[in-house]
Amino acid sequence: MIRYALACEHGHEFEGWFGSSEAFDGQQADNQIECPLCGSRAVRKQIMAPAVAGTKRTPAEPRGKARMMMQAMGELRRHVEETFDDVGDAFASEARAIHDGRSEARGIYGQASPKEVRELVADGVPVAPLPPKPPSKTELN
After folding, report:
1. What is the pLDDT of residue 56?
2. What angle do CA 19, 22, 27 make, to 5 degrees?
3. 3-state secondary structure of 28
4. Rounded CA gap, 73 and 77, in Å?
5. Do 79 and 23 fall into the same domain?
6. Is 27 within the bounds of a domain?
7. How much is the pLDDT for 102?
8. What is the pLDDT, as a whole number, of residue 18?
9. Containing structural domain, residue 96
10. 121 and 74 in one domain?
11. Pairing relation of β-strands 85-88 and 43-45?
């Protein structure tokens, strides 16, 4: 796995994990990478110092705050998936209907395009990205 520091055209900084540099290049060429804050797909790599491993060390698991953050994000995702309604591709219309009082108030999750997310945010509809699924142990090696 390769970790890249990324930034969108609006200056939002975030990280992305990719199976290889070719995987990043392919996803960027297919316009699949987007800013988790604004949905922009104009994303670029930032300059990073390389992570150089010594010959006697094995890659370490995340420690301290990083491990705690990954665990918290996993628990949040699990809670949402277990207690909220998955409305799939109808997320934008259902979130708007709940906000406008035309649908039952409840927690929902699903998929929305970056354009739909920007429109919801502009109209004051509270939305937030769902944390990604944590990688399995086989994906980490």
Report:
1. 58
2. 80
3. helix
4. 6
5. no
6. yes
7. 96
8. 87
9. 64-131
10. yes
11. unpaired
